[in-house]
């Protein structure tokens, strides 16, 4: 269960594991990122999970996820590719499993219209792993099953949190993903996400949204 949120720290219990997430600013995240290993994404899981949500009309769009994360833990960082994405919410993630604690990083970010949960393992002084390659999960610390269960649970929490805040939200905003001609944001009471096949139409819609900022 989600125990508490305090000072941008989130505590989660899933089965016998405990997870402590602490929001990081970009400077601190980059500092820790330099001393970490990339853990491989499970793209098959992502596809199955998002199809499951879509088929049940339970998926959050980009605007809804962005606002929920912003309300939950503060403004987005800038640790993302601004051609292919528009937000980044990095965390320090402490995994407590079988009486031991393991240090990880979590970055929730969008990439070409999809939301990813990037996991990295913090290196310890005695570690000799090659940080230049992407590694599979470490089963004794944060296994593939653990990671997928964590993502599923945390996404469910975002869904619940969005339901709590959506009726009181009223601030116009928009974000752009130029690589895939996607616009999303909040306008006239709607959390919108629009995909454009025609670049000229995308540009016209972008310019129209920009007029609301004047």
Q: What's the topology here?
A:
Elements: E1 2-6, E2 9-14, E3 17-23, H1 26-33, E4 36-38, H2 43-55, H3 62-73, E5 88-97, E6 100-111, E7 114-122, H4 139-142, H5 144-165, E8 173-177, E9 182-187, E10 190-195, H6 199-211
Antiparallel strand pairs: 1-2, 2-3, 3-5, 4-7, 5-6, 6-7, 8-9, 9-10
Overall geometry:
globular
Order of helices and strands: EEEHEHHEEEHHEEEH
What share of the residues lie within helices? 25-40%
Number of individual domains: 1
How many beta strands in the DSSP annotation? 10
Which stretches of 5+ consecutive residues score pLDDT under 50? Answer: 1-5
Name the quaternary structure.
single chain
Distance between the termini: 44 Å
Mean pLDDT equals 94
- Reading side by side through the largest sheet, how are the strands ordered? 1-2-3-5-6-7-4
What fraction of residues sit in β-strands? 25-35%
Radius of gyration (CA) equals: 18 Å
Structural class: alpha+beta
Count up the helices. Answer: 6
Q: How does the major sheet shape up?
A: 7 strands, antiparallel
Written account of the structure:
The chain is α+β, with helices and mostly antiparallel strands. The protein has one domain. It is 34% helix and 32% strand. It contains six helices and ten strands, in the order βββαβααβββααβββα. Strand 6 and strand 7 form a beta hairpin. The N terminus is likely disordered.
Brief digest:
By secondary structure, the protein is of the alpha+beta class. It is built from six helices and ten strands; from the N terminus they run E-E-E-H-E-H-H-E-E-E-H-H-E-E-E-H.
């Amino acid at each position: 269960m989600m125990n508490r949120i305090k000072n941008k720290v989130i505590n989660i219990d899933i089965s016998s594991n405990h997870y402590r997430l602490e929001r990081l600013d970009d400077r601190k995240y980059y500092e820790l990122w330099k001393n970490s290993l990339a853990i491989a994404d499970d793209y098959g899981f992502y596809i199955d999970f998002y199809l499951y949500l879509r088929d049940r009309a339970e998926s959050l769009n980009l605007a809804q996820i962005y606002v929920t994360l912003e309300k939950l833990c503060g403004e987005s960082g800038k640790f993302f590719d601004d051609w292919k994405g528009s937000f980044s919410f990095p965390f320090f993630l402490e995994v407590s499993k079988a009486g031991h604690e393991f240090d990880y990083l979590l970055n929730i970010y969008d990439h070409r219209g999809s939301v990813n949960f990037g996991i990295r393992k913090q290196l310890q002084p005695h570690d000799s792993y090659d940080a230049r390659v992407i590694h599979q999960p470490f089963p004794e610390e944060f296994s593939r099953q653990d990671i997928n269960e964590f993502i599923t649970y945390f996404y469910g929490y975002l869904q619940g949190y969005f339901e709590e805040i959506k009726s009181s939200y009223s601030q116009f905003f928009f974000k752009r993903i130029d690589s895939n001609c996607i616009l999303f944001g909040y306008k006239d009471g709607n959390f919108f996400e629009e995909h454009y096949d025609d670049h000229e139409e995308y540009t016209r819609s972008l310019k129209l949204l920009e007029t609301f900022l004047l």
